[in-house]
User: Fold this.
Amino acid sequence: MMRVILAGGGTAGHVNPLLAVAHELVRQGSSRVEDIVVIGTAEGLETRLVPDAGFALSTIARLPFPRRINAQALLFWPRFAAAVVRSIRIIRSHRPDVVAGFGGYVSAPVYVAAWLLRVPLVIHEANAVPGFANRWGARLTPHVVTTFSLTKLPGATLLGMPMPRSITHPDSSPTLASARTHFGLSPRKKTLLVTGGSQGSVSVNSTVQAVVGDVLAAGWQVLHIVGNRNPLPTTDTPGYVALKYCDRMDLAFAAATAVISRAGAATVSEIQVLGLPAVFVPYPVGNGEQEKNAWDSLQAGSAVLVSDGDFTPDYVRATVLPLLGDDSALERMRQRAAGLGRANAASEFVRVMHHARSGSRKVPSWSD
Assistant:
């Protein structure tokens, strides 16, 4: 059995691939549940999702990297050193064979601790534009894998996004009818899924709520995940279902005919694997990674992209509604999505972990 530590947290984009790998380790028999410890923060989604999945969670301080020189920047390095010491204690206590990190603020101290203790380290970069923790951590290990073709990290290998088997390899695929009925929707109507990510998007939500009547009038229905931080709309319009958070995204995707979404790495990867036509509205803050996350889908012709500022009710009426009304165009988008997604990324990531444990200095190729 392989004892492992998985580091990552904050948003669903870090936590979900981490949990997909954890479940894959157990499914393959590589590790038992008690062999796996997750290192996260006390503030992120991992505080709920990791224990709910049955895995042990240890926490260290959340340390955003300073963007400018100020008092907080001066305090950062002592706090970072304390987080490294805390990570060393966790690693020594658990005695892992491998440490795997998925980026985010929590990962950098764990990377340093693993390097100092000479524990094999594997890094997964979810986004097309790598975050600071993974850019730094990639210097400490030869075992680095990425999700998208645009990602630039020295020595990295393209692998894809580890995803839950409920999406990539469901034991029994839900039918359109059963998935839609689960959410209280008509089993027969085409369904537009709208999601702004785990926290939601005020701009996407307001635009969609303004055009719900137009979408319904076009013969569609809407499943709208508004996000944890946003209020539910006070409407009971037939054909429009709004949720704060969806724990069954496998059913939400199964219910969908098309998707309007942010372009977070996990969401883009899930949409690619499932071959759904998509309208991506990248989050306008950060390093521009969401726009680049969508690049492979745009090149294939399976998605369209609109900036957050341009995603207005007028845009939806002028561009999205005609697309929803063109069954041939939607079918072409579905066909062009074929081959984009990497459904076996979780199992391939476990394979990389085994190679790292064995002392190999390279990531395996998928034809090995």
